[in-house]
Design goal:
It is a single chain. With 296 residues, the chain is an alpha/beta fold. It has an 8-stranded parallel β-barrel, surrounded by 9 helices. Helix 8 packs parallel to helix 9.
């Protein structure tokens, strides 16, 4: 059994901000390559309004195109009740509900107050359980907000407690703008894990300032064993000005495997997936180890 769980979000978070539409076929190929590398849990798409995020307009088509992958645990992000009602029609292991630690980002990102967001989440948790679909509650801007600046630990923990009370199966703590430092990660994550108890907690890190790998190691040291990352470090949020891509899947896997922390992932095949992910991005991907390993 692996020591850590790697969730790749490159088909969704990695591509959502791309200005040129990526074909359903290429999104499908990316998922296939990730599965071939040994990654089973993949955030494949999101059910958001196509006018807000045009890149995700083919959400249903993507999910239909990957049903042939028996080991895949497909995840879809949903920002509202309408999104959940569309998502539940598909074969999903989990829906990822995105909310925020600040009111301004919540309004910019999903057009709701935090209270409204949690209320909508609470309204469908029971149905998700009946459908056999897990629920992850992601708390965006947990370490800093592009609109409100510093985010207190109390703000994050307040949303966390309400998500747990609502019945979330998993929690994800996100550094949406890549502002966290290892000491901040360690402090907050220890408190999150204590509050969450037996509920699994993941961390989702963006690499805007080059600290995502160090922050991931700090999260591991604090007790996190689930990491949301993106092949080749592609990505960005349309509603977070200045935010860069995600922590690169291959960089984190390289670190863990060198430390004898088992990921269950075939690194060479992961590099193939990372190369393909990079080819779909209009920006220079943030992943580092791919360039070094490909030269050897």
């Amino acid at each position: 059994m692996p020591d850590v769980v790697i969730i790749d979000v490159s088909p969704r978070d990695g591509l959502q901000n791309e200005p040129i539409l990526v074909s359903t076929e290429n999104k499908t190929k990316l998922v296939e390559l990730l599965v071939e590398s040994g990654i089973s849990k993949i955030e494949a798409t999101s059910f958001v309004h196509p006018k807000k995020v045009p890149q995700m307009a083919d959400a249903s088509a993507v999910l239909e195109s990957i049903t042939h992958l028996p080991t895949l645990e497909a995840v879809a992000l949903v920002p509202n009740l309408q999104g959940f009602n569309r998502a539940r029609l598909h074969n999903l292991s989990e829906v990822n509900w995105v909310s925020s630690a600040t009111e301004t980002f919540n309004e910019k990102n999903i057009g709701m107050t935090i209270d409204e967001s949690i209320s909508q989440f609470s309204s469908f948790v029971g149905q998700a359980k009946k459908d056999g679909i897990g629920t992850c509650f992601s708390i965006a801007v947990s370490f800093g907000c592009p609109y409100e600046g510093d985010v207190s630990e109390e703000q994050v923990l307040s949303v966390l407690k309400r998500a747990i009370e609502a019945g979330a199966d998993r929690i994800s703590i996100a550094d949406t703008i890549g502002i966290a430092t290892p000491d901040h990660v360690e402090r907050l994550i220890k408190k999150v894990l204590q509050e969450a108890g037996d509920i699994p907690v993941a961390i989702h890190l963006h690499d805007t300032r080059g600290l995502a790998l160090a922050n991931a190691y700090a999260a591991y040291g604090a007790g996190v064993r689930i990491f949301e990352v993106a092949a080749s470090g592609i990505g960005g949020c349309p509603f977070a000005p200045g935010a860069a891509g995600n922590l690169a899947t291959e960089d984190l896997v390289y670190l863990f495997e060198r430390m004898n922390i088992r990921t269950g992932i075939d690194f060479e095949k992961l590099l193939d997936a990372a190369d393909f992910a990079a080819s779909l991005s209009s920006k220079n991907p943030l992943g580092r180890i791919r360039h070094v390993e490909r030269k050897q």
